[in-house]
Amino acid sequence: MWVNPEEVLLASALWMTERANPYFVLQKRKGHGAGGGGLAGLLVGTLDVVLDSSARVAPYRILYQTPDSLAYWTIAHGSSRREVTEHWEWLEHHLLQTLSIFDNENDITTFVKGKIQGIIAEYNKNHDIKEDDDTDKFKESIAKFRKLFSMPDEEKLVNCYSCTYWKGRVPRQGWLYLSINHLCFYSYLLGKEAKLVVRWADVTQLEKCATLLLPDMVRVCTRCSEHVFSVFLNVSETFKLMEQLANIAMRQLLDNKTFEQDRSLPRLKKKSPKKVSALKRDLDARAKSERYRALFRLPKDEKLDGHTDCTLWTPFNKTHILGRMFVSTNYICFTSKEETVCSLIIPLREVTIVEKADSSNVLPSPLSISTKNRMTFLFANLKDRDFLVQRISDFLQQTSSKIHLEFTGSLNSSYDEQGSLLSYTPHRSSLGSDESERQFNLNDNSVPTATQALMTMYRRRSPEEFNPKLAKEFLKEQAWKNHFAEFGQGVCMYRTEKTKDLVLHGIPENMRGELWLLFSGAINEVATHPGYYQDLVEKSMGKYNLATEEIERDLHRSLPEHPAFQNEMGIAALRRVLTAYAFRNPNIGYCQAMNIVTSVLLLYAKEEEAFWLLVALCERMLPDYYNTRVVGALVDQGVFEELARVHVPQLYDCMQDLGVISTISLSWFLTLFLSVMPFESAVVVVDCFFYEGIKVIFQLALSVLNANVHQLLSCKDDGEAMTVLGRYLDSVTNKDSPLPPIPHLHSLLADDGERHPEVDILKLVHGSYEKFGSIRADVIEQMRFKQRLKVIQTIEDTTKRNVVRTIVTETAFSIDELEELYSLFKAEHLTSCYWGSTSSPTDRHDPSLPYLDQYRMDLEQFKGLFGVLFPWAGGVHSDSLALRFFRLLDQNADALINFREFIAGLGVLCHGDLTEKLKLLYKMHLLPELHHEQDEPDSAFEATQYFFEDITPETSHGRQQCPQQSACDDGFVRVTFRNEKGGQVKRVQTPDYRTYLRLWNQETRSTSENMKDLPKLSQGQFIELCKTLYNMFSEDPNEQELYHATATVTSLLLEMGEVGKLFCSTCSKEDGDERPPLHGTKQQGLQPEPFHASAGQPRDEPRDEPPDAAETSTVSAPMEDIKLEDSSPKDNGTSSAMLISDDETKDDTSVSSYSVLSAGSHELDDKLQCEDIMEDTVLVRSSEPLPHSASVDKDWAITFEQFLASVLTEHALVRYFEKPVDIAACIANAKNVRKVGEAHVSVSDYEISLSG
């Protein structure tokens, strides 16, 4: 390709000149090509890899030079000789003569540079190539990556790093390429090549470790191998990027979230000192935004714009605190260098004034920010204050416009506090109306509604009652009010160590809902989404799905001991919140334990506030906890085990042996101890959780184990251990709670053992901070990543084992073979997710479905595996055969097949006998054509009856009425076929597909299926069958022998079909033409023998028929087999021709089936042509179809028995279909081809693998 002219100092160093003229030189890199260049070539090749030289990708180049100058400029380079030669010839034809006109060398140089730059600009314009942020060096790396590993353009390279790969005990210096979906390594050292490709989705362990010799190593483990990399220039950056990419892959396995690059990132300046790829910048920005959101509990769509060091004036202690300011699209946040000293969140919606104050020596570059609640925050020591103020001003303008839009948009849906809890009852609509048009009556008061938190309505105490607990509660409230007066109230409050101390002493009952909203960040979403919850409730109420059924089942199990949920008011509020969230987030929907947590939220918060608290809990604070497989809880269970091993090592081995940790952690974590502790104690845990996050739960769980070490060590089984822990948790009390004691249903004290002494929850919480408060949030996130890999891969392995266990008894494949095939099946789905597919990944992968249906593939994916696994694949027509095969396997006609269906088809080809294989081939051609909606409607009817109703049809064109016809019609009229765009599989909409699936399974599992049950093959279908046979043999070593055998069988079947017409009814009245009698029936005295395969149905209906046919119509229904050997072309060369014509007798072994079948069978006298098949003959049917009347005879049909018997007469065909299949070799070949997706054929003559 042409490149911008770049000066070269040493033109001949490491390059060999192949062509030259006065102005241009064509060179080849030493060590490239067949010669290799000996030792010098090996050294050059090694240097190119180690130093990441562009010559590895482009070993040819063209230099420009002037005759009297030693300066050279690179103007073109190429990956192949052909590519660079084209450029060379263009230069000779278009530039050489022009350059000879110039007198001045400088003019020549200017002209050549301008010409080359013009060519590049024109090329970019014609190919719509846009300028991007990637440097030329990184573009070279992308080219190397795609060339070395045969990656398509859709695979995006993120970055590459120089490192050493340990192959056994031998280090290989090379380059590590990290792309979105793959980890790749390449090394070339003195003629020895090392290449590695690992899919991120296959990684089971990724860790950074160190040894005495190698202080910085990265270990990457998959299910079957382990890879070690070392000698990184920046191991931390590399490992963080690897973690990110592995996380993206796990997220894709979990919920099909594919990676989409953020195009909104600002472009880098031209003079930026460090330019990385746009994709790497995107991933870095995502990582920073994620940490920013987690630190300040911000909404999940908030993006960090930037941060800067500064100081913050804190009025409560009159000091300037050193810290860092973060600015994003909707928030300004601050955190001190010391984590616990001070943090601050200022929503831009609250900001009124941003102004630059006067600088001084004491207060350089100050910035003042005022808010609506009359608080002023003073920042100083800002490095680039003017730029910062401009960014904040821009975001403020965007925020004000958003607020204006939200205000105007919510005028009609706004509501006051008294109406925040409404009962939404769907208005009855007509059955024909669309769901989206249903109107809801918001004023229906059939269900009592609450207007505030439920706890305030069900507080059971007298106004005059006063006791020490109430006194303590009053003191708590006063302490918080004093705190608000000193540190501010609401979202802009200064959060300090004193705030944490107040939380650890318990939040007052009256303030719990307000502070939960504040500390969880849900207060921001309440403020920015007015009317959202009401709209969601309105849309969700009255609609039913699996989630709503589960919600209804669990409503009365949610804190049934609390009076608030012993009546319809609390139950209705709980129903609305859970249903609204299920419709907001269908990926989670509803999970058990959500009802318990939500019921507690409703006790302390209004209904809409409880909804947003649930959102914060499920989507930010406990990620993936409440999906269908509770992955988040399993991940934290693994983290808890690791923490227990570190902090309570004396107990760890015992707990592992008993298996208690996995049992207790799910119930503790999923409900935040609400289901295992008395209510008044558990809410204190929730207080701390909303302030500090998941670390509080880990700390508390470790404290519970530590407090029971001796009892647990003496336990003999898990039941005894659970009793010990249950008794302890039931004894946890909150002595300061003003609430009356609520009976706890979790008590495990069914035995008459002694009750555990009471444990104060506040002391337990304080003790957990003292003993285990060193656990850091960032360490937990690191441990979560490690456990997430393990958990998700374990789930995938469990799915594979269950699928294999389910179908191993249905197939001849071994368990190992099934597991390998399942891995290929799943890998094909992942590849299509990476590089695009015609169907949605969500349709093909749904973890909520049964194991067999979790992974499914569409037609395009099936074609990929068909080409590398199925023995019938081959030639240019493989896709059309794959389409027929796919439609046959797609039992429920949803354009997707599961693994069982896939194995059923492959099993027949690999382990089936001759009859089963031919039966499968025959069935593939019974299905109606996709592209001819009206062709052969009766054959389509007949075939569909067979596949979906198991009813034997009468004839191939199906116009006669059989005694069962009325019953058949009733089931079939609801089966419809539609053409899909782009040749997609036709979908069959059936009233009850389960019935059809059951019938189909019975048919496929039947070992003694009656051949009579198979429908007849019409002439059009027979033509397609012959085409398929020819295409299947196109690349076989015995191709010519198989072609001759196929021609013989084709001729024989054609004659059988002609004779069979004598026993079929005539065409319906719609066919006006009267057919002439066949030649050679009466004249030759040949008595037509009855065919068993005509599948005797009575032929006694009155009809109009030709005279000759009338004599044959009286033949009895049960017919005997015709003697096939009498008409075999091999045994009697003339008998087959006698059925066709008196005077046309030719060698039937030379008949081209495409010549025969291109004419209608009733016009064979004039149109049958016999051709000798030469070795170089290519049999191709004309693409222009003949008129229907001339190309297809509706009365012509053959049966499966005739097809089977005809094939058995040809030993070449018998050998082909009985040839054993080495499935292990097919799997090994598929693994090699599918390692990185589709095999890419390179047009370059550059050999990638230079070692033997």
Describe the fold and architecture:
α22 crosses α23 (694-707) and α39 (1039-1060) runs antiparallel to α45 (1200-1208). By secondary structure, the chain is α+β, with helices and mostly antiparallel strands. An 8-stranded antiparallel beta sheet has the order 17-18-19-13-14-15-16-22. The protein is 45% helix and 12% strand. The protein contains 47 helices and 28 strands. The two termini are 30 Å apart. InterPro entries: EF-hand-dom_pair (IPR011992), EF_hand_dom (IPR002048), GRAM (IPR004182), PH-like_dom_sf (IPR011993), Rab-GAP-TBC_dom (IPR000195), Rab-GAP_TBC_sf (IPR035969), TCB1D9/TCB1D9B_PH-GRAM1 (IPR036014), TCB1D9/TCB1D9B_PH-GRAM2 (IPR036017). It holds the Pfam family RabGAP-TBC. Residues 1070-1154 are annotated as: Disordered.
- Name the average pLDDT: 74
Number of helices: 47
Rg over C-alpha atoms, rounded to the nearest angstrom:
39 Å
**Alpha-beta content class:** alpha+beta
Unreliable stretches: 404-446, 748-752, 931-994, 1065-1190, 1236-1252
Largest sheet: 8 strands, antiparallel
Strand content bin: 5-15%
C-alpha termini separation:
30 Å
Strand order of the largest sheet: 17-18-19-13-14-15-16-22
Number of strands: 28
Helical fraction equals 40-55%
Biased composition (Basic and acidic residues): 1120-1129
Protein name: TBC1 domain family member 9
Keywords: GTPase activation, Repeat
GO biological process, one term: system process
Summary tags:
eight-stranded antiparallel beta sheet; about 1250 residues; about 45% helix; seven-stranded antiparallel beta sheet; alpha+beta; 47 helices
